[in-house]
Amino acid sequence: GGFLAWKAFSEKGPTITIGFDDAEGLQVEKTKIRYRDVEVGVVEAIGFSQDLSKVEVVASLTKQSEPFLTEGTRFWVVKAQVSAGQISGLGTLLGGAYIGVDFSDEGPSQRRFIGLPRAPLVTSEDQGSYFTLRAESLGSLAEGAPVYYRSLEVGRIVEAQMDDSGESFTLRVFVEAPHDRRVATGTRFWNASGFDAAMSAEGFRIDTPSIVSLLIGGVAFDNFSSLAAGDPVGDDTVFTHYDNRQDTLVP
C-alpha cells in the first residue's frame, strides 16, 4: 500500500490555476487541456478569484509538462467560432470546449496564469519572422487579416494599434518560414484590401489577392524588378505601409 501511494504521488503532475473572464463551456472533471490535440491535463475545480473579477480554473497536468510551465506559456478556451474569414474549433461541437495551451520554456517557472480571451494567432509551433509596418490609416485591416506574397497567403496581422500621437498606426505582421527570407530592405508592403483598378495602354486592370481580402482586408508585399531588393532583414524591422500597390512603385 505504501508503495502504491508513493508511486501515485511520484507520477502526479503539477496543479495550476488559470484565470478566465467566464467559465462558458468548462466542466469539472470533463474539460480537458490539450497541446497539439494531445490531452495533457484536466480541470479539477472552478471557482472565483477573491475580488470576483475572474473565474479561476484549477487543473492538473501531466508530469511531462512541468518544465514548460513558465511565464511564456499561454492558455485559452477552444470553442467553435468564425473570425477573420476562418472557421475554427468545429470539433468542439460534439466533444465540448477544451483548454488549449502553448507551452514555452522561456521565463521563470509559475503556477498561476491569466487565460487569453481567444486563441493566439501565432504559437511556438509556427516558424517565421515578425515585421513592423507604419501606416497613416488602417482601412479595413484588423488582427487576424492575411498577409500575401504574390497572391499566396504567407502570414497574418497579429497586432494593429494606433500610435500615441493618434496620427498614425502600427501593424505587427508575422510571415511564415521560408517566405520570411523574401523580405529584404527593398521590400514594399501595401494594403491589399478591396481591389486596385488601373487604366493603361493595355486596358482596364483589376488586381486583388483573394476573395478573403475583399471581405476582411489584408496586407501584401513583394520585391519589384524596378526596385533593388536589398539585403535580408531580421525580426521587427520597420517598413512603410503603402495605401495601395501603385504607390509602392513611386521612387
Note the main attributes of this structure.
seven-stranded mixed beta barrel; mainly beta; 4 helices
Description:
This protein is 10% helix and 41% strand. It is mainly beta. Strands 5-8-2-3-4-1-9 form a seven-stranded mixed beta sheet, with no helix packed on it. The protein has a seven-stranded mixed beta barrel with strand order 10-13-12-11-17-14-18. Strand 15 (196-200) and strand 16 form a beta hairpin. The longest helix has 10 residues, at 2-11. It is elongated.
In brief:
The chain is built from four helices and 18 strands. With 251 residues, it is mainly beta.
What's the layout of helices and strands?
Elements (H helix, E strand, L loop, with lengths): L1 H10 L3 E6 L11 E4 L2 E11 L6 E7 L12 E5 L2 E3 L2 E3 L3 H4 L2 E5 L9 E3 L13 E8 L10 E4 L2 E11 L6 E8 L11 E4 L4 E5 L2 E5 L3 H6 L2 E4 L14 E6 L2 H4 L3
Parallel strand pairs: 1-9, 2-8, 10-18, 11-17, 14-18
Antiparallel strand pairs: 1-4, 2-3, 3-4, 5-8, 6-7, 10-13, 11-12, 12-13, 14-17, 15-16
